[in-house]
């Protein structure tokens, strides 16, 4: 890592979270561009939050309403949060890291280790990650009638930029 990044905090900009549910009868894709977060290089700590109602896409307006109200219960659990530490020392010549922390979705905390790519470009860090979320882990119940339409394990792709906080 270059010396000018030591002790610096980076804030997120231009971020995107996409989830895909691939079930036997239907594929659902939704995206949010409202992921917010920060990374403290020296302490290797991070925190990211996402308002669940910022997801858009879906196959129909009714499906979006069901996602918000019936599955994610956004009135009660409006935010997803992931905070913790980067396990490796952040260096300019490395781009593979592990982020260990607490992932809170639907009001349920689960400790996770998620692989993350970080690419340092001057005062900007590009990041991306792909991982799965099991609905059962976060106590998200699927009615039997939708088992063929909603996957029990959701694929998540996150990408964005972190810039040096002034």
Overview of this protein structure:
The radius of gyration is 17 Å and the shape is elongated. A hairpin with a 4-residue loop joins strand 1 (9-22) and strand 2 (27-32). The chain has an eight-stranded antiparallel barrel with strand order 1-3-4-6-7-8-9-10. It is built from one helix and ten strands; from the N terminus they run E-E-E-E-E-H-E-E-E-E-E. It has a single domain (3-164), classed as Beta Barrel (Lipocalin), CATH 2.40.128. With 166 residues, the protein is mainly beta. The model has no long low-confidence stretch (mean pLDDT 89). The two termini are 19 Å apart.
Short description:
The chain is mainly beta and 166 residues long. It has one helix at 61-71; strands at 9-22, 27-32, 36-40, 45-51, 56-57, 79-86, 96-105, 108-121, 124-134, 153-164. It has an 8-stranded antiparallel β-barrel.
Mean pLDDT, as a whole number? 89
Corresponding CATH architecture: Beta Barrel
**Which band does the percent of strand residues land in?**
over 45%
Summed up, the helix count is 1
Helix content: under 10%
Name some characteristics of this structure.
166 residues; mainly beta; Lipocalin; eight-stranded antiparallel β-barrel; 10 strands; 7% helix
Please write out the topology.
Blueprint: E1 9-22, E2 27-32, E3 36-40, E4 45-51, E5 56-57, H1 61-71, E6 79-86, E7 96-105, E8 108-121, E9 124-134, E10 153-164
């Amino acid at each position: 890592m270059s010396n000018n990044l030591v002790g610096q905090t980076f804030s997120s900009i231009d971020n995107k979270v996409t989830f895909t549910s691939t079930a036997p009868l239907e594929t659902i894709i939704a995206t949010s561009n409202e992921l917010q977060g920060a990374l403290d290089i020296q302490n290797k700590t991070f925190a990211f939050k996402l308002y669940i109602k910022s997801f858009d896409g879906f196959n129909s307006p009714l499906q979006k309403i069901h996602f918000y109200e019936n599955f994610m219960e956004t009135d009660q659990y409006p935010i997803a949060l992931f905070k913790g530490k980067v396990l490796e020392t952040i260096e300019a010549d490395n781009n593979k890291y592990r982020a260990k922390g607490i992932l809170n979705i639907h009001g349920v905390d689960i400790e996770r280790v998620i692989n993350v790519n970080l690419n340092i470009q001057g005062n900007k860090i590009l990041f991306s990650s792909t991982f799965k979320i099991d609905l059962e882990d976060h106590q998200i119940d699927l009615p039997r009638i939708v088992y063929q339409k909603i996957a029990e394990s959701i694929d998540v792709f996150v990408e964005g930029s972190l810039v040096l906080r002034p």
